[in-house]
Specification:
about 140 residues; alpha+beta; globular; about 45% strand
Length: about 140
Amino acid sequence: MTNDEVHAFLDSRPGWISLTTISKDGFPHTVPIGYFRMGNEVYIGCRAGTQKLKNIERNPKVSAMLESGSTMQDIKGVCIQGEADIILDPAEQLPLLRHSMASRGTPEDQLPKEARPGAAYIRIRPTKVISWDYAKP
């Protein structure tokens, strides 16, 4: 897929993405988690102190995978490999929270005015994007 097609695919599938981090014993740790895209970066909201955050603090290399389809003719997906960092500052979190909620249809007058206590965001800066679309020739 082109870069624009990858962005459109990510934007069209609000819901869950599979995030893989590396645990302290070197094994992959994969979890389904909510996400959204801003520019080329993917953001994931979660609670502070979770295992995925501890893994990123030790090793910021992550991958995130999203796929759709049920037959060989309509399977498509994106795997993003990149460097992650953790956003704990409420002042940085609030615009992310508002963007995420607005992109899912929350009216402007109902968007939060402050960040959620105990929240964290993961920002993934892609270094490699792998995509596939079996419907294409």
